[in-house]
């Protein structure tokens, strides 16, 4: 099958690249929806691991707070106000990131609309809004990231989907499932198309996460009971999975999905 073993020099170079304390040292990343929740955890973690991070979000006060936290901790970050559904915002965010940090290595399409925003399963506005934010938003980010990644010989794009992109649901608007399923298959399509250019695409599928934790309700208890680990997840647990896929440690992983759900879809 044309397989060969790496030379000693290749082994040493890889060990030096992957063995340092900083897993994203020298990398530049854009994370959408990074002003709160999972996106904020990803931004802080990426910065701790050596990345220069663009925090892209519509929440200005929260985004500037995350930027300040990273800078105060000795990291490098910039907040840019950006609506993922607006193409010009994506163009500007990518251009400003490259202008400030010199390149773009990583894009995390994290921004999304939660599944409980529309309760009527046949609400047309709900369908259009879920698809616009969850599916089209990631497409637009990818559209403007790819040319910059091609310039530097490759990169990693991590798309945040959901376990609801893998299974059906009785409670969420069906467009939530459809939009998150679109993220999964879009990821695979782009992995196939842009693999030859050295760009990796993977999707992450979180299970039940905060803000579901809080005041106990019968619905929340039922969801926890359906999760083999018998708890909701933590944003940092997802962030570590995203970190792995973004890093060179995942250099031969593309077109796949990482499920971080406490075992929910294993049933």
What does this molecule look like?
- The chain has 267 residues and is of the alpha/beta class.
- Helices cover 45% and strands 15% of the residues.
- It contains eight helices and seven strands, in the order αβαβαβαβαβαβααβ.
- The chain has helices at 8-18, 37-48, 60-72, 87-101, 124-151, 174-194, 218-225, 235-246; strands at residues 28-32, 52-57, 76-81, 106-109, 155-160, 199-206, 256-260.
- A seven-stranded parallel β-sheet has the order 3-2-1-4-5-6-7, with helices on both faces.
- Helix 5 (124-151) links the parallel strand 4 and strand 5.
- Helix 2 (37-48) packs parallel to helix 3 (60-72) and helix 2 packs across helix 8 (235-246).
- The longest helix has 28 residues, at 124-151.
List the SSEs and their pairings:
Layout: H1 8-18, E1 28-32, H2 37-48, E2 52-57, H3 60-72, E3 76-81, H4 87-101, E4 106-109, H5 124-151, E5 155-160, H6 174-194, E6 199-206, H7 218-225, H8 235-246, E7 256-260
Parallel strand pairs: 1-2, 1-4, 2-3, 4-5, 5-6, 6-7
């Amino acid at each position: 099958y044309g397989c060969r073993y790496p030379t000693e020099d290749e082994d040493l170079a890889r060990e030096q690249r992957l063995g340092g304390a900083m897993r994203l040292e020298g990398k530049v990343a854009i994370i959408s929806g990074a002003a709160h929740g999972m996106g904020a955890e990803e931004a802080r973690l990426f910065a701790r691991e050596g990345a220069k991070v663009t925090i892209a979000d519509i929440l200005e006060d929260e985004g500037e707070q995350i930027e300040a936290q990273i800078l105060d901790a000795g990291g490098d970050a910039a907040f840019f106000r950006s609506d993922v559904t607006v193409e010009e915002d994506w163009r500007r965010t990518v251009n400003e990131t490259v202008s400030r940090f010199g390149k773009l290595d990583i894009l995390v399409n994290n921004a999304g609309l939660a599944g409980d925003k529309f309760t009527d399963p046949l609400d047309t506005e709900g369908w259009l809004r879920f698809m616009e934010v969850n599916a089209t938003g990631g497409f637009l980010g990818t559209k403007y990231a790819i040319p910059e990644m091609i310039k530097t010989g490759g990169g990693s794009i991590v798309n945040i989907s959901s376990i609801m992109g893998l299974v059906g649901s009785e409670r969420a608007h069906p467009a939530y499932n459809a939009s998150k399923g679109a993220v999964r298959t879009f990821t695979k399509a782009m992995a196939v198309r842009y693999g030859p250019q050295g760009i990796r695409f993977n999707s992450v599928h979180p299970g039940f996460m905060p803000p579901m934790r809080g005041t106990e309700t019968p619905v929340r208890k039922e969801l926890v009971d359906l999760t083999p680990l018998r708890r909701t997840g933590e944003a940092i647990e997802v962030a570590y999975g995203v970190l792995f896929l973004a890093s060179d440690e995942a250099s031969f992983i593309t077109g796949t999905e990482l499920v971080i759900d406490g075992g929910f879809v294993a049933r």
